[in-house]
Structure formats: structure tokens, C-alpha cells
Automatic annotation (TrEMBL), chain A:
Residues in Solute-binding protein family 3/N-terminal domain copies: 35-263
Ribosomal protein keyword on record: no
Stated name of the protein: Amino acid ABC transporter substrate-binding protein (PAAT family)
Organism (species): Yoonia maricola
Family matches, as Pfam families: SBP_bac_3 (PF00497)
Automatic annotation (TrEMBL), chain B:
Protein's name in the database: Amino acid ABC transporter membrane protein (PAAT family)
GO biological process: amino acid transport
Record CDD domains: TM_PBP2 (cd06261)
GO cellular component: a single term: ATP-binding cassette (ABC) transporter complex
GO molecular function: transmembrane transporter activity
Compartments (UniProt record): Cell inner membrane; Cell membrane
Organism this protein belongs to: Yoonia maricola
């Protein structure tokens, strides 16, 4: 009986390794051999993932994920999606994903604890204002006097305190939905998001709100670049970076961006 | 009375002293063994270094601790105005539930419903509902501040618990005392104010101390609706550094406050036991 089992296991192993060519750069480096496990947020937000269904490949990050997977030699059906919170992504110990994609900004401090792929998107920060403050001029002076809010776990917080320097203490929230609620309750005038998220919130979530300006992404010393998060020291990073480099060079990444992310040039720069 | 001993310790006393020494040695040895096991074996686990870097990172702690202390002032502020309001509202609810007159029946119903609802609903839901809901009705600034409405959510929830404790204190005063006071010609109101409440409140002080300690921690729930108190500040640092050490820093600050408070509550409890026996 035992022998029979081990023969079955051996055959299985042989067949599963046979799927790859030996030069496949992700071979033997993923969580499950032959599968590429990608984590996204719970829920995953528009326009990064449409309808909270990354399997569809609809939405910017979902599309990038499938493009990267294809470049790495995985068929679409070999991509496995899991959900993770920010905290799960940075906790010490084994991870349940190969890469984690949920608009993680690459920062030096985070990079000490986890690894990031090459950036797949550079996100300018943008100012979303409540219906009562849509006439605010897009200048730092005018923005300073607003009552500010932001999501506490994002890089919007240091940006707010170092660049905008509001006159009253900003209020911080757990997620986009709570910022939305605070804005609806008129507790805050303005909130700082990455531009695509800000445009989505103003168009769909908060009636009458407006994106009045964006910060030039290269203006600050720390442009907000999104990277895929990997466990510290994961050898798969080289493979992912290579795939992203190919996609960038071929212009496919730019095409995906144009498909899923709204044209952002209409939003004025903040002076 | 102490009697002076003629010739040192009795055999009984010697035996007892020996027993005490013995148990002291056993306790000390077992403690040392347990602590040594923790200190030696945990660092030997394969993931220890990573865990240490993520949770007990000295550099991160040193960087963030002063700002966490600063944020803790917000906790103290919210605590300072919520605690007295909770005590007053809790007592009023307890009195409402104790109202004996048939005409005051609606008051009793109100008291019972209040405690049922606010004890039964998770605090965080109350905080969201009142903190975002009421300002959403269209209040002008500064009356829609999350500080005001978030505090109210805490006050309502905790008043429900505190009211129940007060009520148990009121019930602990024997009926015969009320009867005796009434027979002396005191009015119902005087009986409650001068006879029942002074004893009832004293009886429940240790339990109420525990509520204070719990409140002190639950103030952090207000962070969900905006105020950047210590928990949110620690969360911000956690996100920026991808490190959980700021939470440990926050825990240390909480412990500095709660450990003395807990010991004091224990002391009050022990004192009450002694006084009663």
C-alpha cells in the first residue's frame, strides 16, 4: 500500500516538473510549484481591481499581475489569488503569497523588512476636497487652512505633515471608506490619496467632491512608486523584476496603464 | 498579646520556619527554571531573529516613543472628560431602574432598554454610528467634531456597564435598612440619598476601578473615527516602518498607567474583604 502511494507521488512529481523548461526563472521558487500566488487587498478597490474580482484580470493591478505572470511563464489559470491585510504582509515568518500587490509605496524603511519589486506605477498624490471646499485654489497656502484627513497606513501621512503642513492636526482613518464617511459628515475638508484613488472616490463615492490638484510625482524627494511586496530575501524578486523590465521596455505596461487608469493630465499641479 | 518566650523557638515554630524556607526554595527554583527556559529556548527558535526585528526593535522604539507619549495626551484628555460623565450617567440610569413608583414605570423601561442596548452592541459599532452618523445629519463645525460624538459613544456604552454595577451595589444594601429609615420618617428620596447610596457606592468602588481601567484602554477605539491618539499614531509608525515595535511601545505606555491602577483596585478589593469579615 505504502509502495503504491509513493509510486503515485513520484509520478505526480515527475509530471509536475515536466511542465517547465529548465531555464524557467520562477521554477522551484514559488510557494506552490507551478502556481503563482498573488495577494491583493480585502476588499480590493477600483480602479486597481474591478468589482473586487482579480481573477477577471480587470483593473490596473489585476491586468499587471496577469501580464507579469505571463512574462514569467505562468498560464492565466496558474495564477492563484489570495487576500491579505497590510499587517499580514509585513508580519515576520512565512507568507501565504509569492507577491502582494495592493498599492504598496516603496520606502527605504519598509524595504528593510520586506522586499519590493521594481515599481510598476508612479502615483502622484492628489487632493480630494469635500463638496463645501471645491473652490479652494490649488496652492499650498490655500490648502494649509483646510481640515485634513488621510488613511493612517499610507504614505499620505508623512506627505501631509512634511509638504502641506496643515494648521490644524489632521484626522487619520483606517481605510478609504472611513475617510469617505468623515467627509460626508463634514468633519474634514480635504484628504490626500494617490491620484487614481482620488479620482475614483470623487467620481463614484462622494457626491459633489472634487480632485482640485495633484502634486508633481517627481517634485518631492520620495516619489510614490508602487511595487509588489515580497518576503525579505525572496529569490523570486529577480524574476519578477525581469518580467517588469520587459513589460516596461515593450510599452505593454504603459498600455495597461492607459487602459485602466484615467488620463490624469487634466488635474492641475499644486504650486 | 505577645508572650515573651523563655527558651527560643518551640519545636512547632522551628518546624514551620523550616517549611517556609523549603517552599521559598522550591518557588525560587521553579521560577528560575521557567524564566531560564524562556530566555534560552525562545531565542533558539528559527524565527526569533525576525520576530525580534519586527516587534522588539530598539531603534524603532527610540524613534517613535516620544511621539507616542505625545499622542497619549489625547487619550488622557478623552479619558478625563468621559470618566466623570460616565459616573454621573451610570448612576442616573441605575436610579431610573430602581424607581419603585408605578408612575415612573416608563423610566424603568428606559433604564432597562438603555443597558440592554448599549451593553449588547459592540463598542466599535456605537463609535461609528454616533461618531459618523450624528455629525452626518448636518451639524455645523465645531459641533460635529469626532471628539464630541466619539466620547458620547464611549460614555453611553460605559454608562450601561457602570449602571449595572451601581445597581448591584444598591441591591446589596439590605431591604431592612430602607424599611428602618422609612419608619424613622425619612422620605423615599432621603432614604436613597442618605442611607442606601453612600453604602452602595462604597461597596462597588473596586468593581468601578476595573471599569476605569477598561475605559482607559477603550479610549483608543476613537481612533477609528479620526482622532490621532496613541493607537493610531502607533499604527501610522507601523505602516511607515513596516514594523510592529510601535505597538509594543504603546503597550508599554498603557502598562505604566494600568499596572498601578490594577494594583490599587486589588488593594481596595482586599481592604473591602477585610472590612467585611
Amino acid at each position: 500500500m505504502k509502495k503504491a502511494l509513493s509510486i503515485v507521488a513520484m509520478t505526480l512529481m515527475l509530471t509536475s516538473t515536466a511542465v517547465y523548461a529548465d531555464d524557467h526563472c520562477a521554477a522551484g521558487q514559488t510557494l506552490t510549484e507551478g502556481k503563482f500566488t498573488i495577494a491583493t487587498g480585502n476588499p480590493a478597490y477600483y480602479p486597481w481591481v474591478l468589482d473586487d474580482a482579480p481573477e477577471s484580470g480587470q483593473g490596473f493591478e489585476a491586468a499587471v499581475a496577469y501580464a507579469v505572470a505571463a512574462e514569467m511563464g505562468f498560464a492565466a489559470e496558474d495564477v492563484v489569488w489570495v487576500r491579505s491585510s497590510f499587517d499580514e504582509a509585513i508580519q515576520p515568518g512565512a507568507k501565504n503569497f509569492d507577491v502582494n500587490m495592493q498599492q504598496y509605496s516603496i520606502t527605504a524603511a519598509r524595504d528593510e523588512v520586506v522586499d519590493f519589486s521594481a515599481p510598476y506605477y508612479t502615483a502622484p498624490m492628489a487632493v480630494l476636497v469635500s463638496p463645501g471646499a471645491t473652490e479652494t485654489a490649488p496652492t499650498l497656502d490655500a490648502l494649509r487652512d483646510l481640515k485634513w484627513g488621510a488613511v493612517g497606513s499610507t504614505t499620505a501621512v508623512p506627505k501631509l505633515t512634511s509638504v502641506v503642513q496643515p494648521t490644524s492636526d489632521p484626522l487619520l482613518y483606517g481605510d478609504n471608506a472611513d475617510v469617505n464617511a468623515a467627509m460626508s459628515a463634514n468633519q474634514i475638508d480635504a484628504a490626500l490619496f494617490d491620484l487614481p484613488t482620488a479620482l475614483f472616490l470623487s467620481a463614484v463615492m462622494i457626491e459633489g467632491s472634487k480632485v482640485i490638484g495633484q502634486f508633481a510625482p517627481d517634485a518631492s524627494d520620495n516619489p510614490d512608486q508602487f511595487g509588489m511586496l515580497l518576503e525579505e530575501g525572496n529569490p523570486l524578486k529577480a524574476c519578477v523584476d525581469e518580467a517588469l523590465a520587459v513589460l516596461t521596455a515593450s510599452g505593454e505596461l504603459a498600455t495597461i496603464e492607459a487602459t485602466w487608469l484615467q488620463d490624469t493630465t487634466g488635474v492641475p499641479l499644486i504650486e | 498579646m505577645n508572650t515573651t518566650k523563655a527558651a527560643g523557638l518551640t519545636r512547632r515554630e522551628k518546624y514551620e520556619a523550616q517549611q517556609r524556607r523549603r517552599s521559598l526554595i522550591v518557588a525560587a527554583t521553579s521560577t528560575v527554571v521557567v524564566v531560564a527556559c524562556i530566555i534560552i529556548f525562545i531565542p533558539m527558535t528559527p524565527g526569533w531573529e525576525k520576530v525580534q526585528r519586527s516587534f522588539f526593535n530598539g531603534d524603532v522604539l527610540a524613534d517613535t516613543f516620544p511621539k507616542l507619549l505625545d499622542a497619549f495626551k489625547i487619550n488622557l484628555m478623552i479619558f478625563a472628560w468621559s470618566a466623570p460623565a460616565i459616573a454621573i450617567l451610570g448612576l442616573l440610569i441605575a436610579l431610573a431602574r430602581d424607581a419603585k413608583s408605578p408612575a415612573l414605570f416608563p423610566l424603568r423601561i428606559f433604564g432597562a432598554t438603555f443597558t440592554d442596548v448599549f451593553r449588547g452592541v459592540p463598542v466599535i459599532l456605537t463609535v461609528y454610528l454616533i461618531g459618523f452618523g450624528i455629525p452626518g445629519l448636518g451639524l455645523p463645525r465645531p459641533w460635529n467634531s469626532p471628539y464630541i460624538w466619539g466620547s458620547l459613544a464611549l460614555i453611553l456604552t460605559y454608562a450601561a456597564y457602570v449602571a449595572e454595577i451601581f445597581r448591584s451595589g444598591i441591591d446589596s444594601v439590605h431591604q431592612s435598612q430602607r424599611s428602618a429609615a422609612l419608619s424613622l420618617g425619612l422620605s423615599e428620596r432621603q432614604v436613597m440619598r442618605d442611607v442606601v447610596l453612600p453604602q452602595a457606592i462604597r461597596n462597588v468602588v473596586p468593581s468601578q476601578m476595573n471599569m476605569l481601567i477598561a475605559l482607559q484602554k477603550d479610549v483608543s477605539l476613537l481612533s477609528f473615527i479620526g482622532p490621532v491618539e496613541i493607537f493610531r499614531q502607533a499604527g501610522v509608525f507601523k505602516s511607515l516602518t513596516a514594523n510592529f515595535t510601535p505597538y509594543v511601545g504603546a503597550a508599554i505606555i498603557f502598562l505604566i498607567v494600568t499596572i498601578p491602577a490594577t494594583r490599587y483596585a486589588d488593594y481596595l478589593m482586599a481592604k473591602q474583604m477585610r472590612d467585611r469579615s
